[in-house]
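In response to a reviewer's request, we include the raw inputs and outputs for one of the modeled complexes. The two entities were modeled together in a single run.
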Amino acid sequence: MSRDQRVAITGVGTSEFARAIPDKSANRLRLEAILSAIQDAGITKDDIDGMVISEGGGTAGNPRWHIELSELMGIYPKTVCTSIPMGGATPGFCLDIARWAIESGRCRHVLIAAGAKESGAGRGSHGHGFQDQLSVWPGHSVNYEHPFGPLLLTFFAAMANRHMYEFGTTHEQMAAVAVACRRHASLNPDAVYRDPITISDVIDSRPISSPFHLLDCCMVNDGAVAFVVSSAEAARDAPQPPAWVIGSGGGHSSYFMGSLCGGIPGRERENFDLVRSSARLAGDHAFAEAGIRREDVDVALLTDNFTISPLMMFEDLGFCEKGEGGPFVEGGRIEIDGEIPLNTHGGLLSCNHAATNFQNFAEAALQVRGNCGERQVPDAKIALAASSAGVGSTHQVAILASN
Amino acid sequence: MTASHSQIPSKPIPLIDEDNEAFWASCRRHAMELQRCSECDYWRYYPSPVCHRCSSFEFEWTPVSGLGTVYTYSVVYRPPSAAFAEEVPYVYAVVELEEGPMMPTNIVGIEPSEVTIGLSVQVTYEDVNDSIALPKFEPQP
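The model returned the following structure tokens for the whole complex.
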């Protein structure tokens, strides 16, 4: 079977990750990741002719990081330069833009980067609460949600409760996601939380928003991730083996909880709702484009902001039937020596949440290159990387493959 | 108000605009009205200038029964800000109204541990200030 070998990730880099890095600015962290990715790709900054940067950054103000970072790096001229404001789904769409720019002949090497100092963002940040002033909160439907006191994670907790109600999913099953991610983080020297945990540790941690306890929830921290996407001809000259982008897809629905619960007006039979997400569209397109089956995937890097998310993504991406995500994640199937290892870096739960989900794409490339050390999935040839935002509302997925 | 009280942030208060002012006025009267599309009869929430189903601009503000069931919920233990600190644990929920729309809200008048998906509820109003009354829900008798 011939696979698409037109575009590849050729270099990846990260800053250090920690709960707080007080002596470095967010830009310093982004620049460390960028320089590391450029070096890994075996190019110089003058080889870069496109930049696609995450708008997210944990600080208010000018979100045009693509301009600021290109000035700081002295990277110009470029033929593509933009920031993407898609929250947790940003990395997958950055990769799509890079891919389209390269396939069209516009670019040869596109730099993708994100980073944040979430430690300074306080309770207004992801996983915590909200701004007290609705006028400055970045969402259109907050007038009808936030007066009732949800944490951001309360929306996912309500998703989990509905999943438990419809399908009999248990907290123990969700906890298996946290246990797997922590086990993998224990094998990753860069991860923030590395001490292994048990199902009981998750269940017995303090309640946050039912059914979630503390260890069902991601951290907030400081860090940055970057990668370089290159044309086939450039990739073949690169020092590292290429991680070919053989398929990608997007799927987008709504953010407002009322709309998510109610499904698509007039199209209810298409069966999208709070526990049947548009990740299905992203996955179906990516697998069709890649021309592979679900069982061909050697490692899955999924959004694990809360333990329900990967469980539901395994369903919506087609790794198991709808409603079977609970039993699917049990019994070690998603651990490093299981059938489909999940989040070998440790994920948002245990490795790093800054540059949300960008690390899924970096890790997918490292896995198919065989560069993951103790956490390497033996003989990994195909990796799926996902990125998701909203309340499982918007999804960008890519499938990477070795030569 | 003491100095220490002024340090506590207020709860978020909905912003009134052209699209939602009739909705908040109806809540203020404790007689909630939602928009019903004049073309296709679709009930919608949150307030919007256009029908989410058929894209018509024609609608009527129409009283709702105030009855519904809990579609999903979560009991909040960790307050999102100091403004909610004295109320935890409380119930954030999405209620499916009898007329169809799904409404994020709080379930009140019941122990949080007693709330279940499918619980029959009815609207009750919390007067926040002269402009805003929040529609919350309590168990039907």
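As requested, we also summarize the result in words. Confidence is low (pLDDT under 50) at residues 1-6 of chain B. Residues 16-139 of chain B form one domain.
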